[in-house]
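Standup notes
- HV: blocked on the assembly model, inputs below
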Amino acid sequence: MGFSTASAKSVALPAGKERSRRWFRLKKVLLPHLVLSSLGLVFLFPFIWLLLSSLKTPAEIFQFPPTIWPKDPQWGNFVRAFEAMPFSRYTMNTLFLCAVNIIGQLISAPLVAYSLAKIEWKGRKYIFAIIIATMILPPQVTMIPVYIIYAQLGWVNTYLPLTIGAFFGSSFNIFLLRQFMMGIPRELSEAARIDGASELRIFFQIIYPLLKAPLTAIAIFTFVGVWNDFMGPLIYLNDDSLWTISLGLQGFQSEHGAQWELLMAAAAVFTLPTVLIYFIGQKKFMEAGAAMTSFK
Amino acid sequence: MKRLLALMTTVCLVAVAGLSGCSPSEGTGGGKRTEIDFWYTWMGDGSTSMKKLIDEFNRSQDEVYVNGLAQGDLRKQMTAIVGGNPPDLASLPDEINLASWADKGAMMPLDAYIKKDGYDMEDYLPAARDAVTYEGKTYGLPLGMNTWMLYYNKDLLKKAGFDRPPETIQELKKYEAKLSEEKNGRITRLGLWPGQIPHVWMQSFEGRLWDPEAKKVTPLDPGFKSAVELTSSVWQKHGPEKIDRLLAGNGNYGSPQNPFATGKYAMTLDGEWLAPILGKNAPKLNYDVAPLPYDENHPEAKNAGYINVNLLYIPKKADEPEAAWKFMSWLAKKEQMVKFDKALGNLPPRKSAMDDPAFKDVPKFDRFLKYANSEKMEPLPSLPFMEKYMQEIHKQNDQINRGKVPVEKGLKDVETKIQPLVEKTMK
Amino acid sequence: MAQKSLAMRRKRRDFWMGLAFAFPFIAGFLFLTVIPFFQSLYFSFTEYDIFTEAKWVGLDNYTRIFQDENFYKALSNTFFMAFIAVPVSITVSLLIALLLNMKVKGIAFYRTVYYLPTVIPGVASSLLWLWILNPEMGILNTALRAVGLPDPAWLSDPAFTKPSLIIMGLFGTGGGALIYLAALQGIPREFYEAASIDGANAWHKFKCIVLPALSPVTLFQLIMGLIGAFQIFTEAFILSQDNLGGPDQSMLFYAVYLYNEAFVNLNMGYASALAWVLFVIVMLITLVIFKSSLRWVYYGGE
C-alpha cells in the first residue's frame, strides 16, 4: 500500500501527459491486480498448505518453527494413506451415489417443474406454495420418523435412503427449473399442442433440450452436495464396504489422531477429485452459481 | 450436456460393477461360510494386532468369516444398533456404557451361549466378571483390563532434587509445583498431567460415586470432590488458556512425540498401555511407575486404585449371533487373550493368563499386575444411568477446570440432574 | 357449445396431466414430509427409544426442554452463528463480488481462485483447519507470533471456537460472491451513468443503486444462510470430537445436540420435541425477515 501513496505524491508534481497516463494505468490496472492477487493468495493458501503438509515427515510436521516447504517430500504418505484405508472403494461408492442422485434429479425435477410452469391446472399454485414451504422446513423435523420408516423397511445400511429422495425431485431444483421454464415463450409449447403433440413429447422434444444450462447447474450442485454429504452416510451406512469418502476420512481421523501428515494426505486425496472436476468444468460452475440468481 | 450424461452413466456402471463381486468370503473353500461384521474400538497398534488375530481366526476354520473394522466412534455403534442393522459383534473400551446399553436392550445376554459351551467364566477375575454383569446376566466378555499408575520421569525428578516418587497427595502437590515450568507465558513443562477423568483419583481419597443402600448418586462425596479439586488445581494454577494450548500442541500419543516421552510432562497419570508405547518410541527415556499417591488423611487408601475392563458384546438384532459368539469366545480364550494383551500391554483379566511367560518382556507389566491385584482396586459400579452420569461429570468437570463453576455447585448440578434418572431407571 | 365442451375437456386433461407430471414430488412430499411431519409431532409427546413402544407423556418433553441447560447452550451457540456469522459472511461475499466486478484482465482467473475453497469437502476442510488453527504447531499462530500479534488457542479456547468457525466460513464466501456478481452484472449501465450526471460519488452509487438492486439476492442469501446456520453439523462433529460440543460446549450446535439426543442417547421423543421447537423458531425468524423485507427489498420493474 505504501507503494500507491508514493505514486500519489508523484502525480501531484506538474508532470507531462505521459506521467499521468502512467498513474492512470497504475491506479486502474496495477492496484486492482495487487488487491485481487494478494487476496487470492489468501484464498488459495489453505489448499496449498494441505498439499504441503501432506508431504512432510512426522518429525518435520512437529518441527518448531514449522518449515514452509517440505525438506524431503514424502510421497510415501499418500501410499500409506491408501494402504490404511480402501480409498478407491470409497471413491467408487461416492461416485455411484453422486451418479444415481444426479440421474434422479435430472429426471424428476424437470417433470415437476414442467407441470408447474407449462401446464395450466388447478393444483399448481398449491404445489408451488408447498415447494417454497418445504425449502424452509428444517430437515430435522422429519429426520427421526424418516429414519424409523427406513429402519422398518430394512433399508438402513443400504443406498436406498441416500438415493431415493432424488427421484422425488428436490424443492430447490424444481424451483430453479420452474423459474427458468417461465422464461421460455409460451408460443413454443402452445404451437406444438395445437399440432396435437402429447405433453410428454412437448416436454422431451421441445422443453428438455432448452434446459441445458440449468440442468448442468443442478448436476453440478448435486454432485458437490452428495460428495460432501456427511450426516446422511453417517446415519444410514454401517458396513465400511458401503462407506463414502466423508465417512472414511472421519474414520481415518479417529484411527490416526494426530498423525497430521497422513491425515493431510488423506484429506488431499479426498479433495483432489472435486478440485479437478472444478478446474475442468469451471465455466459451468460459474454459470451454475449465476443460475441461482433466478431466485429473485 | 450429453457428454456429461454419458460420463455419469459410465461412472454409474463402473461403480455398480465395482460394488458387486468383491465379497471377501468368495473363493475360500466350498461350504457356506457365515460372514460376520466386527467393529472394534482399538486404534493404531491395537487395530493392527486385532487384524492379525482376525486373520488367524479366518484361516483356522472355514465356518465363520470375520470382517473386522476399526470404528473408534461409539456414537456410530449406537446409531447402527438403533437402525436395526448393527454389526454382529462389537467392542467397548470400558464397561461404563454396559449397564445403560444392556438396560435399553441394546445388548444380547450371553448366558445361554456360556451354558451351552460350558465356557469357563470362573477363570475370570471376579472384578472383571462383575464389570460385564448387569442384573444377574452376562453381557460381555472382557479381553483386557486396565489400571492407572503415576508415570514419572526419573531424570527430571532427580534434577529437581527428588530421588523417589511421591507417596502421598501432599507430596505429589509439592513435586508438581517444583517440576512445572513456564516461559514467556507458556507452559514449557507440566509437573503433573492429572488426566481428564477425575474418578481415577477417587480411591486415593476413599471416595465413591454411588450409595447402594440409599440408592443415591453421591457426586458431592468428599473423596470424589477432593479428586475433582486435585485435577482442577492443575488447570487453575496455570490457567485453562495455557493448558488448552499445551494439549493442542501435543504430538501423537503413540509416537516419539508423546508428551511424557518428550519430557513435556514430568509426571503423568496413565494406564499400563503407555509403557509398551514408550518402550517402542522412547527407548532411552529414564522413567518408572508408582502406585497413585494417597491422601495423608486416608492412610487406608495406600495402594488403592481404579480398574476397568474392555469387552466384546453382541448387539441386539445382530444377524449372526451364533457365529459372533463363536469368534468372541475364541478371542477371549487364554491363548488369544495373551497375544492381544501382550501386544497392547493390557493386563489379562483371566487368572490363568496372568503369569504367562509371554508377558515377561512387556515393560512394567509386573508392576501394573501387582498393583491391579491389590485388594483395594475398585471398578465403577454397574448402573443403568452410568453413561449419562459420566457424561454429566465430564461436562461439569470441564466447567470446573475452566473456573466457570465452583466445584461445589458443579457437583451439586450433577446430583440434581442424575438423581431423577436413578428413580426412573431403578425399578 | 362445442367450443365450451372442448375447453372443459382440455381443462380436465390438463388437470390430470399436471398431476401426473407433478407426481414424483407429490409422492415424495406425502411419504417423506407429510407423514413424518405428523409422526414427529406425535413422538414429541412420547418417550420413545425405538426398542420399546412409545409411551405418551403429554407435554413433559416440552417442559423439560425449557429447563434443559444444554438446550439453551445449543440455542445460543446457534444464534451466534446465525446472527453474527451469517451477516459477516454475506458482507464479505458482497465485498468480494465488488472486487470481482472490476474490469481488469484475467478476472476470470481470479473468480476461479476465489471459488475454489467452496469445493473442498466439509470433512476434509474441517481436518485441514484443525491443523492450520493448531495453537502451537499451526501455521496461523506461527505467523501471528512472528509479527508479534497475540496467538489465541482457536479451537481449544471456548472464546475462540466460534470465531474460528467464522474464519473458516469466510473461505466459503466465494459461492455467495458469485451470486452477487451475477446480479451486479445485471444492473444496467444507464443507472450508473444517470447517477454520474447527477453528480453522485462512488459511495452514493453503491448505496442508492447497487444495494437496492442486490437486495433480493441479499434476502435470498440471508434466509438460506440462517437456515444453514441451524443445520451446522459436519464441522462441529469433526472439530469438537466429543458428544458435548468441545471446550465449554462452545460448539454444541442445535443440529448436533438433536443428533446426540436422537441417535446416541436414544431419546427419540425428546429429540422430536427439540425438532419441533426448532421448526417454530425457524418459521418465526423466516416470517420476521419476510415481513421486514417488504421494507428493504427492492423488486425492480421485472
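- HV (later): unblocked. Chain A has two domains: 2-79, 87-295. Chain A touches chain C through 93 residues (CB under 8 Å).
- Next: hand off to the docking folks.
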